[in-house]
Amino acid sequence: MKIRTQKQSPTLKRFIFLIHFATVCGEIENQDRFEQGFRNSIETIDATQAPWNAAVYLADQNGTINMICGGTLISEEFIITAAKCVKDESGSVRNASVFRVALGKTFKDWNDPRDSEVAQKFQVEGILDEDFFKIFFSGNSEIIDFARHIVVLRVEGMVNFDTIVTHPVCLDIQRLNERIPNLIGTIQIDT
Which of the listed CATH numbers 2.30.30.240, 2.40.10.10, 2.40.50.100, 2.40.30.110 matches domain 10-22+46-178? Predict the structure, then answer.
């Protein structure tokens, strides 16, 4: 696929690179235990069993930070979540500065002392929404319709892959390319 444009943002270039070149990605530790607990709703998992799990938080005008949604780590600086999580009552995307993301947390509260030593917390720097995906998947109405329901959050800084947050989830780019022909290919950027 060739993406031609007058000017393309560094975010788009970085997003394309990071989702395509993730070297290590998601496998759940102790898959059988996870599936059994999930089916029976009798067990919770800790952060090491699904290290790509993210929590999305909203900071209100008083400085209170509340968890509003879950998300999934897809690279060292991008988290995917539902589009409704970043919209206000009128359906407009809120400013990125009001959002926070936490990784490696087991407890819901932003400042819970029980996971404060291991949690990685980030300010959200940018939100890649439907407009971004219209550029990326121009002409493919099926994927653009799907993309209306998701956003990608870019965090300030980089996730530190450690003993808790060991890797992002896997994105099946090959399978996606079967549905969106020529997704994997050459990117030509005219600046």
Answer: 2.40.10.10
CA distances in angstroms from 126 to 21, 22, 91, 122, listed in the order given? 21, 20, 17, 12
Residue numbers of the chain with a pLDDT score lower than 50: 1-8, 12-13, 16-21, 34, 37, 40, 42, 185-191
pTM: 0.74
Q: List, for residues 54-84, the tens digit of each pLDDT value.
A: 999 999 999 999 999 999 998 889 999 999 9
Cβ neighbours around 18 below 10 Å, total: 17
Radius of gyration of the chain (CA): 17
Q: How far apart are the first and last CA of the chain?
A: 17
Strands (E), the chain: 53-59, 65-73, 78-82, 99-103, 120-128, 150-155
The Cα-based distances of 153 to 15, 55, 62, 103, 150 in angstroms read 11, 12, 23, 13, 10
Residue holding tokens 């819970």?
A: 112
User: Are 159 and 76 within 8 A, CB to CB?
Assistant: yes
With tokens 């943002």, the residue in question is 9
